[in-house]
Structure formats: C-alpha cells, structure tokens
C-alpha cells in the first residue's frame, strides 16, 4: 500500500524555484537567485558576545522551555524596537515572538483560512506565502502592483467583490516587486480595512533595509491617523534580513483575540521559538548594536543595488524594464522583447544558467495570471565586481 497524503497537499506543489536551485551548485555560477542576506555581513562578534551573555546571565531562560508567546526580555526589546520605528506606545504583550516571520504567516493561515476562503495577495507576492495559504485551502486573488505598491482602486474593487478573509501585503520593498507603497496609498489601505472590516496583514521583513531616505511609516505605525484601523492590521516583523535568518526570530503584532488564537496554534506546532535564539537576540538588541548593524547593511546593499541598476542599464539597455529599488534585496524586471530579444523569462533563465548566471523567473510569484516576461534579481550576495560580471553574462544570454 503506498502512503497516502492529506488532501490539503493537493493544493500545493514543490516550487519551480527549488528545482532551479539544484542547478546552482554548478562551479563558477554567479547567483542572483536567492533571497538570502550576505553571510559575510553577519555581525558574528556581536552575536558571539550576545550568546555568551545569555548563557552567563540567564542560563535558565536561555536553555529551558519557555512561554509560547515569547521570552519576556525579547518581547520588551522588540516592543522598544517597534516603538523606535513609530509604533507609539506598543506594549510587549501586544506582540508574540515567532519562529521567523514565516511562522507568523503560517499561524495566520492556520487561524483564519478554511477551504475555499478568499485571500487577496499582491501580484506578484512572496512565493512561500502563496504556498502556505494554499495549504490551508485559500482561494487566492491577485491585486496588481506598480512602482508605488498595490493599486488601491483595484484592491478596493477586489475587496468589494470577493469579501476576503484578509489582504496580505508587503508594503515596503516587497519580495519580489521591490516596490514601496506610497504614503497616500498606505492611508487608503487603512481606510479600506475599516470600510470593509477586513484584516490587512502587513509583512515587513525589508523595511529597515532602505538605501536613501527612510520609507514612510509602516501601516501599523500609521493606524493612529485612521480611526478604527488598528484592530484591522496584523504586522509581521523579522530579524532575518537585517541580523541573521538562522536565529529564526520573527514577531507578530495583532489584536488580542487573533494573537491568542495564534499563540494556541503555535503551542501545538513548536511550543515556543528557541529560547537560546531569543535570549541571544534580546542581549543583542539590549547591547545597542542594531543601529550600527543596520547602517552597515544599508550601505553595502545600497552600493550593490546601485551597481546592478547601472550594469543592467548599460549591458541590457531597452531589452529589460525595471524601477531602481530604494531598499530591500531585489530588482524586479520585465523583458520587453525590444530588438527581437527573448520575452519569456523561463527561457531566459535557462540560457542564463548556460552562461553561468542564475536568477528566478517571475511567473511562480503570481497567484493568478502570471506575467511570464518578469524575473527577479537579488543583488544581496554578490559583491560589485561579481554583479558586473553576472550582468555581463546576462547580456550574452538574452
Ligand atoms: N516574508 C517575506 C516577504 C520574505 O521575503 C521572507 C523571507 N524570504 C519571509 C517573510 C520569511 O522570513 P523569516 O521567516 O526568515 O523571517
């Protein structure tokens, strides 16, 4: 008898991107494919000190089972971190620590989505979210995104038509779009949340990775400007892109009832996020190293983004269209077909691998109506020289 799997698995498949990643082992390949931060930039010294302090000062807390909601000193540090980003008066009890923000998304799926429920996501959006919400049976609806983020008029039409369980947005330097939701649209999104009494999930792992001016405040930070909107925003944060994804420290801020249900589900899932990681993160934040760490990652990624934009312009010209990202880790680009060049990003990705450079085609990032001319390039893990070499190889492959 073959093993039979749960019917919910019928809704999801192994991502096309994972298949592509298998090819990345090829020697000499330059990868713009991953969504990882650069390991060379981890603050190893700071994390070593923080973990040693955690073991020396609070071995019970750092090594014992802990509360599902999160390790109290970390909740306090994260509340202060969010307050510094404009979320006035946030109390530690208003957030729970999650095992990466990915777990917060899973908990939202688990607590809110039943088979056939509508959920609105951006087109394009984060691939793992598509898979995760579909696992719970979500019927995903896609709202278009431009350089200013999700198109709010269209979003309103879709909310009125589909009455979704919630709307999932990455308003600041989205993965993969790189787009930043404009201040006007942020306000409109909050007004829509109140008008349609619909939860907005704000996923914000990239907001701290800005290159020039700071982005507008998060949706959560803006809720005081739109009466009644606070209870309709669930905000997910993460230390992954700015400090270390291996820590698996994320958090979720939401209205108390939702937080309580999510905590209950987390209890069945992993009991709590690693107390050792949480105590280390708490010590790290307490030591006050974060501002310097942020300044460093912003500087390095800004330089790489700049180099990639210039190289794309120089080497690929009008064969690709893109908006220069103002933060985050990604370029989102479109093949124009100009000069008879390739229009299909899947085909382009195959040719690129043959030329020793990898990136991810855009189609899998769409829950519906995939645009096969799109693709995502990450500038995070290659230095400027490799970026220039890699874009040169792209020019040969196109
Ligand atoms: N949301 C988005 C938009 C992401 O790009 C990622 C990581 N690629 C995550 C959530 C999950 O990150 P983590 O679980 O490491 O916090």
Structural notes for this entry:
The chain has 398 residues and is of the alpha/beta class. Helices cover 41% and strands 15% of the residues. Strand 7 (199-203), helix 9 (219-222) and strand 8 form a beta-alpha-beta unit. Helix 5 (100-112) runs parallel beside helix 6, helix 7 packs parallel to helix 8 (183-195) and helix 13 (345-354) crosses helix 14. The protein is globular, with a radius of gyration of 21 Å. Bound molecules: 4'-deoxy-4'-aminopyridoxal-5'-phosphate.
| Class of secondary structure makeup | alpha/beta
- The first-level CATH class name of the largest domain: Alpha Beta
Percent helix: 40-55%
CATH topology of the largest domain: Aspartate Aminotransferase, domain 2
Into which percentage range does the β-strand content fall? 15-25%
Model regions low in confidence, pLDDT < 50 over at least 5 residues: none
Strand order of the largest sheet: 2-9-8-7-6-3-4-5
Cα-based radius of gyration, to the nearest Å: 21 Å
- Number of strand elements: 14
The domain tally reads 2
Q: What do the pLDDT scores average to?
A: 96
Named once each, the bound ligands are:
4'-deoxy-4'-aminopyridoxal-5'-phosphate
Helix count, DSSP H or I runs of 4 or more residues: 14
CATH architecture of the largest domain, by name, is 3-Layer(aba) Sandwich
Order of helices and strands: HEHHHEHEHEEHEHEHEEHHHEEHEEEH
Distance between the termini: 48 Å
């Amino acid at each position: 008898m073959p093993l039979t799997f749960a019917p919910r698995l019928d809704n999801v498949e192994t991502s096309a991107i994972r298949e592509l990643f298998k090819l990345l082992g090829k020697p000499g390949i330059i990868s713009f494919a991953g969504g990882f931060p650069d390991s060379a930039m981890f603050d190893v010294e700071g994390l070593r000190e923080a973990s040693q302090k955690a073991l020396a000062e609070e071995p019970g807390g750092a090594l014992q089972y802990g509360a599902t909601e999160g390790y109290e000193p970390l909740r306090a540090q994260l509340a202060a971190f969010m307050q510094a980003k404009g979320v006035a008066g946030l109390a530690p009890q208003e957030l729970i620590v999650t095992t990466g923000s990915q777990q917060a998304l899973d908990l939202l799926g688990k607590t809110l989505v039943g088979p056939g429920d509508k959920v609105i996501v951006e087109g394009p959006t984060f691939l793992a979210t598509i898979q995760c919400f579909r696992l719970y049976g979500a019927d995903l609806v896609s709202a278009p995104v431009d350089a200013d983020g999700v198109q709010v008029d269209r979003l309103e039409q879709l909310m009125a038509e589909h009455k979704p369980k919630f709307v999932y947005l990455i308003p600041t330097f989205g993965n993969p779009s790189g787009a930043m939701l404009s201040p006007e649209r942020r306000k409109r999104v909050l007004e829509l949340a109140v008008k349609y009494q619909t939860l907005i999930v704000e996923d914000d792992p990239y907001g701290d990775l800005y290159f020039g001016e700071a982005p507008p405040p998060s949706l959560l930070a803006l809720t005081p400007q739109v009466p009644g909107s606070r209870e309709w925003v669930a905000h997910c944060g993460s230390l992954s892109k700015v400090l270390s994804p291996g820590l698996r420290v994320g958090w979720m801020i939401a209205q108390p009832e939702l937080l309580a249900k999510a905590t209950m589900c987390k209890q069945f899932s992993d009991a709590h996020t690693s107390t050792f990681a949480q105590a280390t993160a708490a010590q790290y934040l307490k030591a006050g190293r974060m501002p310097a760490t942020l300044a460093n990652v912003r500087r390095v990624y800004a330089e790489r983004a700049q180099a990639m934009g210039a190289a794309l312009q120089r080497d690929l010209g009008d064969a690709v269209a893109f908006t220069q990202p103002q933060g985050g880790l990604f370029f989102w680009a479109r093949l124009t077909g100009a000069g008879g060049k390739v229009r299909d990003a899947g085909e382009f990705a195959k040719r690129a691998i043959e030329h020793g450079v990898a990136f991810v085609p855009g189609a899998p990032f769409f829950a519906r109506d995939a645009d096969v001319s799109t693709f995502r390039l990450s500038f995070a893990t290659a230095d400027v020289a490799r970026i220039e070499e890699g874009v040169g190889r792209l020019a040969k492959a196109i």
